[in-house]
Amino acid sequence: MKVMKIKVFISIVVFLLIGCVSTKKQQTSNCDDICGIYKLQKSTGKLELKSDGAYTLYKPKILFTPVVEQCEYASKGRWSFVADNLLELTSEDKYIKQKGFEYNIMKENRFSQDSLYVQVIFPSDFHPVELDLCFNYKKHIITDKTFIAIPKSTYLYMTNNDNLIIFRLNADVSGTTIYRGRVTFKIFEEYIDIEKYNYLTIALPNFDRCFFEFEPYYKELIFIKNKNQLFWKGSIWEKTY
Fold first, then answer.
1. Do 112 and 145 reside in the same domain of the chain?
2. Do the Cβ atoms of 161 and 148 come closer than 8 Å?
3. In which domain of life is the source organism classified (predicted)?
4. How far apart are alpha carbons 70 and 178 in whole angstroms?
5. DSSP state of 92
């Protein structure tokens, strides 16, 4: 009886190992079939699926004038199979902190002590966002100005020098394009000694057009129509090579 049980157990293990090997081969074969560069019909937009599991979504070329800053890609990240005819994308912002969130604060003591002064410096004139400042989780200031004077007595704790300041950028501004999921950019959350420092200069060296227009995806599904075509965003993407 024991010998029989051992034989059955070995058979199950061998079966599972063979299944794993065949699955890996099938996935490799699928990747060989599906990896490559796909072009969106009637557009210069391209999607590249790489064999290492990375993807790059290239932006369509801007052909009209005047020429504005052209970003090479719209999104980057990882792709994987979820079924024989289905794959998904997850952009890099889901697992790394993007450079656009980097900031520097210069703290000074200037002008009248009854106000907190905030100046925000972008890398260019392109900044279709509003400043969103929250103080001690209680009071907000939202403005499209890059320099503001904030009355301490109205917005800050006067009995406690250390005040919590949360600084965000709100992209939900009338007249601008709202990109997928990119409505609020949280830059930092810090305690500031408002008696020692009342003038903050916040530099955002990488908050440019390309960062703002980055397209985030999380488990975004793409239908594999055949070896040469994908169906995504309601359109056909044709494999070029």
1. yes
2. no
3. Bacteria
4. 18
5. G
